[in-house]
Amino acid sequence: MFDSTQKAQYMDGHRERFIRLDESSPRSSVPSEVGGRSTLRSSMPGFGYGPFNALRSFLSGGSGRLKSLRQSLTSGAPKTAFAEDLKSYKRTIFDPQDKLLFRMNWVFFSSCLFAVAVDPLFFFLPIINDSNCIGIDKKLAVTSTIIRTVIDFVYLIRVCLQFRTAYVAPSSRVFGTGELVIDPMLIAKRYIKSYFAMDFVALLPLPQIVVWRYLHIPDGPDVLTTKTALVWVVLIQYIPRLLRIFPVITDLKRTAGVFIETAWAGAAYYLLWFMLAGHNVGTLWYFLTIEREDDCWHLYCDDPNFGLGCNSSYLYCNNHHHGSYDSWLTNNSAQVFNMCNGGQDNPFNFGIYEQALVSKILSPGNFISKLCYCFWWGLQNLSTLGQGLLTSTYPGEVLFSIAICVLGLILFALLIGNMQSYLQSVAIRLEEMRVKKRDAEQWMHHRSLPLDIRHRVRKYERYRWLETRGVDEETLVQTLPKDLRRDIKRHLCLGLVKRVPLFENMDERLLDAICERLRPALYTENEFILREGDPVDEMHFILHGCLESVTTDGGRSGFFNKVQLKEGSFCGDELLTWALDPKSAANFPVSSRTVQALTEVEAFALCAEELKFVASQFRRLHSRQVQHTFRFYSQQWRTWAACFIQAAWRRYYKRKMAEQRRKEEEAASRPSSSHPSLGATIYASRFAANAMRGVHRLRSKAVPTIVRLPKPPEPDFGVDDAD
Amino acid sequence: MAGFINRHILPPFRRPPLPFFRPGGAGSALPAGRRPWTPRRILDPGDDAVLRWYRLFLVTCLVGLFVDPLYFYLLHTDGLAACVSMDMGIGVLVTAVRTFADLFYLAHMILKFRIAFVAPSSRIFGRGELVRDPDQIAIRYLKNDFIIDLAAMLPIPQMIIWFVIPAVSTSSANHSTNNTLSMIVLIQYIPRVYLIISLNSKIVKASGVVTRTAWAGAAYNLLLYTLASHVLGALWYLLSVERQYSCWKEVCTSENGTTAEMPTRCLLSFLDCKSRDNPIRQTWHNHSAIQKQCMLPDAEYDYGLFGDALNLDRNGVGFIDKYLYCLWWGFRNLSSYGQNLQNSTYKGETVFCILICIMGLVFFSHLIGNMQTYLQSMTVRLEEWRVKRRDIEEWMRHRQLPPELQERVRRFFQYKWLATRGVDEESILQSLPLDLRREIQRHLCLALVRRVPFFSQMDEQLLDAICERLVSSLSTKDAYIVREGDPVSDMLFIIRGELESSTTDGGRTNFFSSITLRPGDFCGEELLTWALMPNPSLNFPQSTRTVRTVTEVEAFALRAEDLKYVANQFKRLHSKRLQHAFRYYSHQWRSWGACFVQGAWRRHKKRKLAKELMKQEGICYDDQGGAAADGHGTDTDGDSTPLLGSATEPGAAAPAADAGASAAAHLGATFLASKFAKNTKRSAAQHHKRIDDDVSTIKFPKLAKPDEPDFSLHTDDAL
């Protein structure tokens, strides 16, 4: 019993220790703040003097902040929120930047345009019947009423949505996109104060009521009252229904930044407005023709000479006529109607409405042909600013003509101006290139540049256009944030930079830093990138093309070295030596080679300041592996190695020749000692003379060909040698 | 007054004005006292009141230009009676309106004597000095604009109507008088138009634009177009009356009363409608051929394009109808450059048609061009944004960016449009003067910067210096602000959005710390350490954390150079209070603090565990002592038993029984003691092994203490 008790106690202690270790893991031990939804979100420090500083900042901030604080404290629910917090807070309040709301705004915009096209159809309701009376087209009345009701219902949805859409608080727009007001009371108050009255008047179903009364109440108003009420209702309500399009357009612009995506769509949009105005003017012309015909009938009906037995009510259909209507219609109506046919012999001056009378469009017939004829009339007179209109002196007619002229002027100016804007934006880069080319030609002519330089400039400009299409790439990339900029540079440069062997073994972070600072460079044929003796301010890494690199070791006679640089090579390697030197001077190093482009070259350039920054910032550039790679691919080192090998070979050759001469001397001295005769002596002296002459020739020849190329200065890779 | 520096509101942190300005101010006040007869106010031409007057006067000039051509409608012809009459009712009304408008011209002239001007010699730099001497102002005005203003102001039509026409009403010069009136109105139109043009240029020079909004500008140009149509229509009507009178005059001249058919001679006074009751005129009219030759529509005379206008009077229409018809005629022919005109070979008529065509071209192109300019200025930002987006799309397609990267770029530009509406804020701020720029930066930044707790410890001047150098930074979702090991180039203060900040302490295994940065936090605090070092290196510090955006983030960025400048320039940044605030809010220090606390806690637990183990071992040793004691006790009992056995002889059986019992107890005790000893030894071995396991599993992450910013300078600022 005692043993088991002790064992159980040990196990409990062990388990408790493990639980505590889990609790103290670093992930969950860091406190995370719970952020509030108030605009005054500030977490106070835990020091004793914190409240005093907070109070001072509140007092110095003014009463506006105190008022905002009081409002925030008074109501329990928050009044404003950022856009990303909206979806987590309330489902019923919409974000004005919501994609669904954006699409619905497009639907609302289309329905508003359709509404201002459908409303003028009510002007076609009065017709002149076969029995020469003014009536109302019942079929068209029903159709127009149904269409208008459907369109108004669509817009009613937008009105309901406006009560549920948040808006940006103006006081929070001092920075960024601002905060959203999500209090339904404030949203409703703002909407009612701004556009609600206009929307309410636009949505009133007044034409529907007038038409319904005419169609369904047997003892309702007659044709004249219905016609008059209808035209005034539609005309007065047309203004708010036209004006409500602009808040919808404003919402679309605010959300998307552009209202029309392409330039041609913009031109078509304004052409659509022009056609819409033509349609409206045409329908109004039709209605005013009916009015003018009515005036003519009334004039002759009241005249005792023509209107014997005529009553005004006889001119309208569907009325309960008196007993004498039939006799008047049979005997005397021809006198009234014949005077108002619109012919040449009529004394009544119809002015611009005569065309409608003569063409018989007032009779009940094909509605489509009537619609097309009026549309054509409106479009013609709008586009010619009404210059073909021969008016009478009737003031209503003259005012209508003046309105057509002014409206045509406005729409014409809008159409031409906007088409020009869109066409300019389409060809803006081409025009810029053309202007730049003309500037270059003009400047070259002004400075009297020689022809070959002009030819080179033209070739370079053409090459640059092919590469970039006129887009200023550097400025365009600089507007992006740092993270996007780095990713784009990585996409553009990394695959190409890895093809340079010097960069193969670097790690990702170092390559990112280099990619951010690489600048594309383009060179045309026969251009000199570097010249021997010039300061090197850029290091170039060749991506495409072929270059020739030559050196004369400072112009020394008898020395020439030439190599070809291809893809993966680099030039300007003196700059790396200069950048890696901790105690380097401020001057740039002097180039030891002349580099010329043999074909069109694409390269990445790394300027001196950027290279120095990378070298000092990233210590991993100082490594043995990079040193070896640099030595292998550096043309300067290769040249030195080639000279070193040549010098070694020449020393070896010289040593071999000396040994051979010594053997010859030994062979010559041996036969002379064996024959002491006179002939042998003569032969020995002759051979000695020949041998001495050969030695002299070799000595004089070897002296000028021995070269002493100094070892190039080595980059200081000594720091962090352990890598 | 020009040299006196007047400061109404003195900001608290600005330096007070220097004392040597006060004697200068006193010196300036002295000449004003010496001349009490000078006017009380000399107005500045750039003043708001002067600009408002200019705009009001421009409206009045336009009204005057509209009213003047109405004089052309005073005449109307009676085709049946072949005479011309004048409508004095309209004349009275037009004269009253014109007199009211002329009063504004007079007021404008008087005001011109009170408006200062800029001396031309002082315009080489800045706006120039104002000449406020009334004598020089009067001399300059009389020399330059006075003649034209006087010509525009003179009420000549009023004098002709009220004094000249009644004086010559009975003579035959009535028509000549009316011609003189029309000619004078036309001649006076020229200085009035010139006055409007110069007024336009004055307003543009003073405030930059005539109208504030683009729509008002377009409506203004349309109004000018309407005015031109109105003048043209009125002129058309006037010329048609002239043509009618020419026809009548020609017939009247030919009928000199020498034939039998014409018993009476025609006088020119017969063409005036006032002589309609004359018996001699009635006789002449009955025998005259004037109707056959000059009366429309069967006239032998060719009226050309004026026939329509003469029909107006023949039909007896009223003034309103006549005016509207003429206005419409002007509109139609001005907008179509006179394409529908069918003129005769009369020279005046041909010149009039040429004038219509030229005016139509000028006004139409002017209207179209100006409306286009205004409409383009309304949408210039929108068009720039569209062009930039198209450039971006073309460039991304040209460079074959992957679709994911393209989507990120599009999302960023959408976000940037929402935040800035396409306006380049930096260039707008740079074009403002330094003081205004500082005030705007304070308005934009200060209220938001105070929400960052680290800045709430700073005073106003330091906050101003920081606000000037803060730039706004916008980042979209899932963007890496900085990665571990990268150089930190700016310090970011979060205003909106959330970021995730994590660290692996240089890539060490088994170490990961992740926190969420919210509005009020900051990241890149290694930069502050680097900026506050007395002799910092040129290299930027390396980041110890990887910061990634979880949502869209709006922040203020403080660049490395700006932070170093602030740290060097304002020594108050080196204070103990800021040091404490920095330590509290810095996540690097929080991470170190968390690791330190963890390490301390683990050491505490280890020490506690060791103490418990030692205590347990003490308890085991006492038990062993007890066992040994028991064994010892047993030996003592064994010794006492033989003593009792040897003492008594008759109790031999009893000692034998005791000896057996004692032997049994001894064996059991020995067995139990050995068993317990074995158990104790095994338990001790297990205990030791467990301690070794605990020691081996505990690994203290040796997180290095972060480099502390050098706040030690000027410690007298401490709390």
From TrEMBL, chain A:
Molecular function GO labels: monoatomic ion channel activity
Claim: Membrane is one of the keywords in the record: yes
InterPro entries (alphabetical): cNMP-bd_dom, cNMP-bd_dom_sf, Ion_trans_dom, RmlC-like_jellyroll
GO CC, alphabetical: endomembrane system; membrane
Recorded topology in the membrane: Multi-pass membrane protein
Residue ranges annotated for the Cyclic nucleotide-binding domain, each copy included: 502-585
SMART domains: cNMP
Localization annotation: Endomembrane system
Origin: domain of life: Eukaryota
TM regions (residue ranges): 106-128, 195-217, 229-246, 398-416
Keywords: Ion channel, Ion transport, Ligand-gated ion channel, Membrane, Transmembrane, Transmembrane helix, Transport
Principal location listed in the UniProt entry: membrane
Family per record: Belongs to the cyclic nucleotide-gated cation channel (TC 1.A.1.5) family.
Name this protein carries in UniProt: Putative cyclic nucleotide-gated ion channel 9
Source organism of the structure: Zea mays (Maize)
Lineage: Eukaryota, Viridiplantae, Streptophyta, Embryophyta, Tracheophyta
From TrEMBL, chain B:
Transmembrane stretches, start-end: 53-72, 79-97, 146-168, 218-239, 349-368
Region described as Disordered: 626-657
GO molecular function annotation: monoatomic ion channel activity
One GO CC term on file: endomembrane system
Domain Cyclic nucleotide-binding residue range list: 454-584
InterPro entries: cNMP-bd_dom (IPR000595), cNMP-bd_dom_sf (IPR018490), Ion_trans_dom (IPR005821), RmlC-like_jellyroll (IPR014710)
Protein family: Belongs to the cyclic nucleotide-gated cation channel (TC 1.A.1.5) family.
Name recorded for this polypeptide: Cyclic nucleotide-gated ion channel 18
